[in-house]
Amino acid sequence: MDLRKVVERNSVLLLGPRQVGKSWMIRQAFANELVYNLLDSNTLVSLPHSPVRMLDQMNKQTRIIVIDEIQRLPVLLETVQVMTKKFGVRFLLTSSNPRKLKWSGLNLVVKSLPPLVYAELAENFDLLQALNSGLLPSVYFSDNPVEGLSAYIETYLREEIAAEGLTRNLPSFRRFLMVAALSNARQMNTTKIASDAQLPRTTVQEYFSILKDTLIGHELPAWRESKRKGTASAKFYLFDTGIVRTLQGRGEIRPGTPEFGDALETYLFHELRAYADYRGGLPLHFWRTAGGWKVDFILEERVAIVVKGTGQIQPTDLKGLRALQEESKLEKFIIVSLDERPYQIGDIQVYSWRHFLTSLWNDEY
């Protein structure tokens, strides 16, 4: 994503969880612009008392102003609106928690920045490292990813949840978070999670909203275009495989373990969601019938994808795709597996995860 080109045309709200690289991107692409980092306590304290400070620091060459973590001072959105209309200034606003932001009256292009993706890492990508450590840049390249992941969760609870006053009961939210992680890559069952976390169902529903609003949890909706009666509830994924593993208290994830398939599915959800966002918001769904047939992902109403964490495809692995083929609504049917060489089973293409991701980011689907 060439963020600077986008900002030069229109003001942008860049959303992304903490530590995905928003501030790094600012330093790289906007080093010579006016930048206000609201994580800096001095800036946070002084700016609300004198929002005209931005006007004072402008000059005739000022065309772009950056406000990092705008959610810490949402009142500045009024100043942004005035300056945009009066002076034609473009703004880059970033946020890891847009829950409090009301930007509907602003002419903003909304973009998302996820953790690292396969296309960015290229030769530096390692699948087992990604499944175990996740793809937060500060953790992926760390000498101690275990410590980094634990620190990330504590920072999230302290600075995003407690400091922002999103819940008065931090211990109950922590307990919920660990139970929700065990439900990762599953259909959402708030009744069961409420029981396991010993919380009211309404509280669990509110906590799921907080996860989504703070950008670390995502729902994958069910595909409704099938002729067969299907499920209605969405699936839930946390945003990073390393965070999932840490919250679940899992040991090392390796091929052949029960956790490997779920971790691979969660990782591929991350790649597909990032790809869909970068390509302008392509629709992404899953499919499951009342009879138990399922397909992990349906991309852009065209491509059906099943994820298998093995290198041996069995006839039972084809059932969901075969059932979906009968409806004649989709164009491509793919199994992503650990097989090294691509091959076909009838009209179903079997790809290695690497081949699939390379083709995905090359827009070959």
Total helices: the number is: 16
Mean pLDDT: 91
Q: Numbering strands along the chain, what is their spatial order in the largest sheet?
A: 9-10-11-12-14-13
Largest sheet: 6 strands, mixed
SSE sequence, one letter per element: HEHEHHEHEEHHHHHEHHEEHHEEEHEEEH
Q: How large a portion of the residues is in β-strands, by DSSP E?
A: 15-25%
Shape estimate: globular
Low-confidence stretches: none
Tell how many strands the DSSP assignment holds: 14
- Please give the share of residues in helix: 40-55%
Distance between the termini: 20 Å
- Class by helix and strand content? alpha/beta
Radius of gyration, in Å, reads 22 Å
Q: How many domains comprise the coordinates? A: 2
Describe the structure.
The protein has 365 residues and is an alpha/beta fold. The protein has two domains: 3-112, Rossmann fold (3-Layer(aba) Sandwich), CATH 3.40.50.300; 118-361, no CATH class. The protein has 16 helices and 14 strands. The chain has helices at 3-9, 22-29, 41-46, 53-57, 76-87, 118-121, 127-133, 137-140, 145-162, 170-182, 190-197, 201-213, 241-248, 258-278, 319-325, 353-361, and strands spanning 12-15, 34-37, 64-68, 90-95, 109-112, 186-187, 217-220, 235-238, 284-288, 294-299, 303-307, 332-337, 343-345, 348-352. A hairpin with a 2-residue loop joins strand 13 and strand 14 (348-352). Helix 7 crosses helix 13 and helix 9 (145-162) packs across helix 13. The protein starts with a helix and ends with a helix. The model has no long low-confidence stretch (mean pLDDT 91).
